[in-house]
């Protein structure tokens, strides 16, 4: 009888020790997963900023050269990008290139400014990957024939 009571006590003590260990370990694991998710969101925002800046720089260069200047540029679109607006949020003529990035917690807009009028259609780019973009100076913008602009479109 003493032997089985001793086994029962050992098992109970082991169970108690493991329970305390798990009670401490589970919150640490949850915090680690939250930090990893935040790091991935930050990385997507940084990569989106780099791609938008690259497009903005090339658009400015092509725009200052004027028609018929054109250039191909390769950009890396990170995960989380659901839309790319050129000109403004309705893809009209404007001075912005906007990446819409979605994370589990929220969505954000990564915006770069160009001193030249830009327009384009990059809405078809909504998945992670590397894309080739045709950046060309236009004497008349397809969205507004009264303005000259730099037009951005993906190479298919």
User: Low-confidence parts, pLDDT < 50 over ≥5 residues?
Assistant: none
> Helix proportion of residues, in percent?
40-55%
Distance between the termini: 81 Å
Shape designation: rod-shaped
Strand fraction band?
25-35%
Number of domains: 1
Residue-averaged pLDDT: 88
Alpha-beta classification: alpha+beta
Described by strand count, sense and barrel closure, the largest sheet is: 6 strands, mixed
Count every helix, treating DSSP H or I runs of 4 or more residues as helices.
1
Q: Going across the biggest sheet, name each strand in turn.
A: 1-5-6-4-3-2
**N-to-C order of helices and strands:** HEEEEEE
CA-atom Rg in angstroms = 27 Å
What does this structure look like?
The protein is α+β, with helices and mostly antiparallel strands and 156 residues long. The protein has one domain (33-154). The protein is 41% helix and 35% strand. The chain has 1 helix and 6 strands; from the N terminus they run H-E-E-E-E-E-E. The chain has one helix spanning 2-65, and strands spanning 70-77, 81-87, 94-102, 107-120, 129-138, 149-154. The protein has a 6-stranded mixed sheet. A hairpin with a 4-residue loop joins strand 3 and strand 4. The N and C termini lie far apart (81 Å). The model has no long low-confidence stretch (mean pLDDT 88).
